[in-house]
Amino acid sequence: MELDIRNLTKTFGSTAALHGVDLKVASGELLALLGPSGSGKTTLLRCVAGLEIPSGGQILFGGEDASLKSVQERQIGFVFQHYALFKHLTIADNISYGLRVRPRRSRPSAAVIRDKVEELLSLIQLPGYGGRYPSQLSGGQRQRVALARALAVEPRVLLLDEPFGALDAKVRKELRLWLREFHDRTGHTTLFVTHDQEEALDLADRVVVMSEGRIEQEGSPEDIYDRPATPFVFDFIGESVRLDIRVDKGRPFVGQQEVSIPKLPPLLFDGPAKLYVRPEHVAFRRDGEGLWATVVSLHRSGSSRRIGFRADGTDVVIEALTPADREPPRIGDRAALEIRAAGLFSG
Amino acid sequence: MILNAPFVKPSVLPGFRLTIAFTILYLTAIVLLPLGALLFRASSLGVHEIVALALDGRTLSALKLSFVTSFAAAAFNVPFGLLIAWVLVRYDFPGRRFFDAIIDLPFALPTAVAGIALTALYAPKGWIGSVAGLFGLKIAFTPIGVFLALVFVGLPFIVRTVQPVLAEVDRELEEAAATLGAGRLRTIASVVLPVLSPAILTGFALAFARAVGEYGSVIFIAGNIPYVSEIAPLLIVIKLEEFDYAGATAVAAIMLLVSFGTLLLINLIQARARARYGHV
């Protein structure tokens, strides 16, 4: 079921949480809504679910307007960060809840429900757990039960709100891989909200980066990481340093030195600008062409080493990342920097 | 030594011996001693005499009136107390604090004041009593009057025990039920009420216990007609006034046993529910 969100707005009192968001989700796609807290990603998800009423705009499920439908009518599956399992019901009763609350004429028979529960329990790799209570399960198991409960009603769209947010790092990673593999097998159209970029880039077919109620950029994980479209995305995704530079006659200058940056679109403005550079895109040599700088800091972290350079005639510090086993320079050494890729924005 | 028992977990705030000693002392002095004296007093009567007294028609009908109306009043208060707690917790409306404060009035009011007020209202010449009289319904000086007085004094117990628990109910549970297709009533019945049930039971037990022992607010409106609207606590007072101390303590002992049995049963139900769902 494809999803089409058109010019969606939502205001809480006098503060706007969403400013006219447009988003299309293809059928069977696994899409991540990524952003810091307060970016409106959860509000967007809850609007799609029908748990929030939008202030304006439309939400289409498979071409049909669902904006005015109630939560119950939308046939979505929603998974909450804190599982929201019914703790007075067994695992089996939790999973079958959505089937058992149906009106009598569309309710499956007890035998069909039992089979469905068994099928889902083996799908989430918890066969034989049907008789237990949620309090007897670990966090990762509970979240899988919550997913099975959402899937039992055969939802048209699966919505996950920070599904791994309450789990510890190891379980998070395992469950993430499991969900990717699970999605490949079942193919539900899935929207999931996260503030964890690693999770979004690792898991999703497509990532939508949000900030302050607007979409900053949408694209494949590679697009988002390799070609951030705005300063916000550069800042938010991955590691980068921001350099205050100057553009003169279409050429970028750091202090008095011109820097050459490959793959940069032609610069159509002059004046101050911001250059975003990722540490892994900075190489250094002891001689030759490049941006001359002095080593000012050395820092070993795990398998790599981070070296800080101050560009000549400026206060700008650029970091480079090298393997830890490579012979490091000493503080005060001179080097020529080569910037292999960077983003440049005026202002 | 028994107080170094293995069931005491090490804690940064030790003090088991001191606190348990004080607890036992306090409960003994305040609760067990008077009740023991009562039972001792009652035991000076022979078993035969107690049974004879319990089976006496007037005692039986007084006990029956007390327990049945108390149970009915507490049960009647459950749905309405729940509704009031819901409104006070879930909605923010002008005057909410005022209504919230009013809930405690039946609790704080001297019971005699409540009794006089209720009688003035429901007596055959009172505002409501005269209207009800037109339909041939007599409220004051009948079991209905007793019931109304007990509903009045019991209400705060239900509201005040349910309120804090309801405020803590995770809204996500309701949202989860709604996304799974459950309608509003279904969600309340299958998701909210099970979470509230221990609090409801506690509130019910407190309201029931208070109603069984209620005296001041009931005696005016009850009219105290033997076999019709005479409650057990009043019967005790009457026996005392007739210097029938043994009879009074016997009735008291019977009330004590029935009340204790009821509260024990309610506690057992709660313990079973807790063991099943666990604290998550």
Automatic annotation (TrEMBL), chain A:
<dbReference type="Pfam" id="PF00005">
    <property type="entry name" value="ABC_tran"/>
</dbReference>
<dbReference type="InterPro" id="IPR050093">
    <property type="entry name" value="ABC_SmlMolc_Importer"/>
</dbReference>
<dbReference type="GO" id="GO:0015419">
    <property type="term" value="F:ABC-type sulfate transporter activity"/>
</dbReference>
<protein>
    <submittedName>
        <fullName>Sulfate ABC transporter ATP-binding protein</fullName>
    </submittedName>
</protein>
<dbReference type="Pfam" id="PF08402">
    <property type="entry name" value="TOBE_2"/>
</dbReference>
<feature type="domain" description="ABC transporter">
    <location>
        <begin position="3"/>
        <end position="237"/>
    </location>
</feature>
<keyword id="KW-0547">Nucleotide-binding</keyword>
<dbReference type="InterPro" id="IPR027417">
    <property type="entry name" value="P-loop_NTPase"/>
</dbReference>
<dbReference type="InterPro" id="IPR003439">
    <property type="entry name" value="ABC_transporter-like_ATP-bd"/>
</dbReference>
<dbReference type="GO" id="GO:0015697">
    <property type="term" value="P:quaternary ammonium group transport"/>
</dbReference>
<dbReference type="GO" id="GO:0043190">
    <property type="term" value="C:ATP-binding cassette (ABC) transporter complex"/>
</dbReference>
<keyword id="KW-1278">Translocase</keyword>
<dbReference type="InterPro" id="IPR017871">
    <property type="entry name" value="ABC_transporter-like_CS"/>
</dbReference>
<dbReference type="GO" id="GO:0016887">
    <property type="term" value="F:ATP hydrolysis activity"/>
</dbReference>
<dbReference type="InterPro" id="IPR005666">
    <property type="entry name" value="Sulph_transpt1"/>
</dbReference>
<dbReference type="InterPro" id="IPR003593">
    <property type="entry name" value="AAA+_ATPase"/>
</dbReference>
<keyword id="KW-0067">ATP-binding</keyword>
<keyword id="KW-0813">Transport</keyword>
<comment type="similarity">
    <text>Belongs to the ABC transporter superfamily.</text>
</comment>
<dbReference type="GO" id="GO:0005524">
    <property type="term" value="F:ATP binding"/>
</dbReference>
<dbReference type="InterPro" id="IPR008995">
    <property type="entry name" value="Mo/tungstate-bd_C_term_dom"/>
</dbReference>
<keyword id="KW-0764">Sulfate transport</keyword>
From TrEMBL, chain B:
<feature type="transmembrane region" description="Helical">
    <location>
        <begin position="65"/>
        <end position="89"/>
    </location>
</feature>
<dbReference type="InterPro" id="IPR035906">
    <property type="entry name" value="MetI-like_sf"/>
</dbReference>
<dbReference type="InterPro" id="IPR011865">
    <property type="entry name" value="CysT_permease"/>
</dbReference>
<protein>
    <recommendedName>
        <fullName>Sulfate transport system permease protein CysT</fullName>
    </recommendedName>
</protein>
<dbReference type="InterPro" id="IPR000515">
    <property type="entry name" value="MetI-like"/>
</dbReference>
<feature type="transmembrane region" description="Helical">
    <location>
        <begin position="215"/>
        <end position="238"/>
    </location>
</feature>
<keyword id="KW-0812">Transmembrane</keyword>
<dbReference type="GO" id="GO:0015419">
    <property type="term" value="F:ABC-type sulfate transporter activity"/>
</dbReference>
<comment type="function">
    <text>Part of the ABC transporter complex CysAWTP (TC 3.A.1.6.1) involved in sulfate/thiosulfate import. Probably responsible for the translocation of the substrate across the membrane.</text>
</comment>
<dbReference type="GO" id="GO:0005886">
    <property type="term" value="C:plasma membrane"/>
</dbReference>
<comment type="function">
    <text>Part of the ABC transporter complex (TC 3.A.1.6.1) involved in sulfate/thiosulfate import.</text>
</comment>
<feature type="transmembrane region" description="Helical">
    <location>
        <begin position="20"/>
        <end position="40"/>
    </location>
</feature>
<comment type="similarity">
    <text>Belongs to the binding-protein-dependent transport system permease family. CysTW subfamily.</text>
</comment>
<keyword id="KW-0764">Sulfate transport</keyword>
<comment type="subunit">
    <text>The complex is composed of two ATP-binding proteins (CysA), two transmembrane proteins (CysT and CysW) and a solute-binding protein (CysP).</text>
</comment>
<keyword id="KW-0813">Transport</keyword>
<keyword id="KW-1133">Transmembrane helix</keyword>
<keyword id="KW-0472">Membrane</keyword>
<feature type="transmembrane region" description="Helical">
    <location>
        <begin position="135"/>
        <end position="159"/>
    </location>
</feature>
<feature type="domain" description="ABC transmembrane type-1">
    <location>
        <begin position="63"/>
        <end position="266"/>
    </location>
</feature>
<feature type="transmembrane region" description="Helical">
    <location>
        <begin position="250"/>
        <end position="269"/>
    </location>
</feature>
<feature type="transmembrane region" description="Helical">
    <location>
        <begin position="101"/>
        <end position="123"/>
    </location>
</feature>
